[in-house]
Amino acid sequence: MSFPLPRLLDAMLDPNTYMARSAYSGIWTPMITPFKNGAVDYDAADLFASHLVGSGIHGLVVGGTTGEGPALTSYEKARLAQTITASVAGHIPVFMGLEGANTQKILNELGELGDCGVQGYLMSAPSYVRPSQDGIYRHFMAIAEVAKLPIILYDIPIRTGSVLHTDTVVRLTQNGDFPAIKACGLTTERLKALLAIQDLKVMCGDDTWMFRAFEMGAHGAISASAQVAPRRFVEAYHMLEKYSADGAWKRFNILLPLMELMFEEPNPAPVKAALAMQDWCIEELRLPMTPVTRAYRDDLKVLLDNMHALHHEDLICADKSSK
Ligand SMILES: O=C(O)C1=N[C@H](C(=O)O)C[C@H](O)C1
């Protein structure tokens, strides 16, 4: 299954027709890790990463939540990073997901990963153990000192059980190399508070919030669903950035049902099911993650068929009238 793209929008995706962006902006996606017979399918990862770059995606995360990072060994993470950095060939940044509740284990993992070619890390607060804010601060600082690469702070309370308080984010950005935050569980107040922090780029981690967040000033998004229809997400982002808010919202609203459906069963099973329908991977996950239910797969097929069938004639007219 592929999604047709009108000529006008092809021109918008041409790297020569849009200006160079700052880092930590635009549509990033945390790539799934394709598996086959229990092993990582590096060839499938290579092909899929090339497709994502070719579709205009602005940055990739490997081995994050959606990449089933906790189920990968350090060897697999390093080899995956080497494969993907080679396939994107420096066109976009590639970051590596880091997580865990044991500071020393993450430090050991950094040693095992070595220089695997990534430009930085995306790291969540320790999960399960619920440390103090000072403990969270010291955890991030200890890892930053050894990592020697930028770390995007990953605030995802629903998964970790702890919140990165705004004061802690400020303290981290003032003392270490934490150029951006991927913020989840957003409220308007929280987003405003993060956007007010000097020298911090804010990347939206709640897919359905993405456009509201862009309109409020967020710099980018790290979105699992974006990899299911990458050109469409990038096209909506460019429309907002360069052309009309109305045209962008129209595109975003078409993508909203997809984003909602992607989180109705635990991520990344829905993303993998959608990508399997497009032949990018097979629907294999590592425990404790499991494939989607049959009923879910039927709904997903209908949604993807509808998206595929949807013509953009009305959107092209909207673009022309907004110029
Ligand atoms: O893997 C990620 O990074 C993302 N994780 C979030 C989650 O799984 O809760 C969702 C977001 O789209 C990307």
Describe the protein in words:
By secondary structure, the protein is an alpha/beta fold. It has a domain at 26-242: Aldolase class I (TIM Barrel, Alpha-Beta Barrel), CATH 3.20.20.70. It has 14 helices and 10 strands. The protein has helices spanning 7-13, 42-54, 74-88, 103-113, 133-147, 157-160, 166-175, 188-195, 210-216, 230-242, 245-262, 269-277, 294-309, 313-321; strands at residues 26-30, 35-36, 39-40, 59-62, 94-98, 120-124, 151-155, 180-183, 201-204, 220-222. Strands 1-4-5-6-7-8-9-10 form an 8-stranded parallel β-barrel, surrounded by 5 helices. The chain has a two-stranded antiparallel ribbon with strand order 2-3. Helix 9 links the parallel strand 9 (201-204) and strand 10. The chain is globular, with a radius of gyration of 19 Å. The two termini are 32 Å apart. The structure holds the ligand O=C(O)C1=N[C@H](C(=O)O)C[C@H](O)C1. Ligand LZUJQKHR is lined by residues 30, 61, 64-66, 156, 205, 207, 222-224, 267.
Mean pLDDT: 91
Percentage of residues in DSSP E strands:
5-15%
Tell me the distance between the termini.
32 Å
Radius of gyration: 19 Å
Element-by-element helix/strand order:
HEEEHEHEHEHEHHEHEHEHHHHH
Taken from the alpha-carbon principal axes, the silhouette is globular
Characterize the quaternary organization of these chains.
Answer: single chain
The CATH architecture name of the domain at 26-242 reads: Alpha-Beta Barrel
Low-confidence stretches: 1-20, 313-323
State the name of the first-level CATH class of the domain at 26-242.
Answer: Alpha Beta
Binding site for pyruvate: 66, 222
Function: Catalyzes the condensation of (S)-aspartate-beta-semialdehyde [(S)-ASA] and pyruvate to 4-hydroxy-tetrahydrodipicolinate (HTPA).
Active site: 154 (proton donor/acceptor), 182 (schiff-base intermediate with substrate)
InterPro entries: Aldolase_TIM (IPR013785), DapA (IPR005263), DapA-like (IPR002220), Schiff_base-form_aldolases_AS (IPR020625), Schiff_base-form_aldolases_CS (IPR020624)
